[in-house]
Amino acid sequence: MGAPYRGRFAPSPTGPLHAGSLVAALASWLDARRNGGTWLVRIEDVDTPRCVPGADRLILDQLARCGLHADEPPLWQSARSTMYRQALDRLIADGQAYPCACSRKDIEEALALQGRPRVRGREAPYPGTCRNGLHGRPARAWRLRVPDGIVRWQDRRLGPQQQDVASEVGDFVLLRADGLWAYQIAVVVDDAGQGITSVVRGEDLADNTARQLLLQRALGVPAPSYLHTPLVLGANGEKLSKQNGAHALDLSDALRTLNEAAAVLGLPPQAGTVADALTAWVRQWPFLQSAGD
User: What residue intervals hold the motif 'KMSKS' region (predicted)?
Assistant: First the structure.
């Protein structure tokens, strides 16, 4: 029998929640409740230059107004630097992480010399320039040494998934040149530290899964199951985001706003109170965790 279900909603405090982020929050809460588990909130604020003062507290207030209450006190990633450092030191000691001296311009020039021009809208894959040493240049960042081979996993909504991380992404950053911790290591360390068994998040983050699986293997920590939810699209057909004109949630009628989020998840509208609606959606939530997850 697997570990008791533990899920989380992990917003970045770059502004208030919008319609897209509420879909992910509602889905993760419903999945935890439907599977008889624990639901946590983690404030992912390691990218401090992008964080807006007070946005973390505003997000917690928005969740509460929607009836989404965490079962344990929230965790802030900005207080977890020591844990990320310990994880990186372990990877370095095991030979699985190495220093990198490359700037973005260096990477693009190296790829061009290899006949691999950058694809617009996609991060340039790292060409491995510093894999075998810095050659006298000063270190700027630390990277994970990615093994060759296809990474495969089963998404609870999207089905079978795979990615060749070595060729599509390359050795990815763990500690950035500006001294900030990269998203991948912070998420993996905190999911392991909080005992997360099930990750429910937006489909735009599905591309991160293979890298996180590799990092979990490198650190010897369990891999959670993954469920990626449908995205809310803006007027231009792209993912709704703060950079794409997303407005803060209108919670003057919280039930109406929750009904709009539920519709994206394929759930029927509800009347009555917010609590009544949440109770109904828990019963109707289709993604019951299987014994093998």
Answer: 239-243
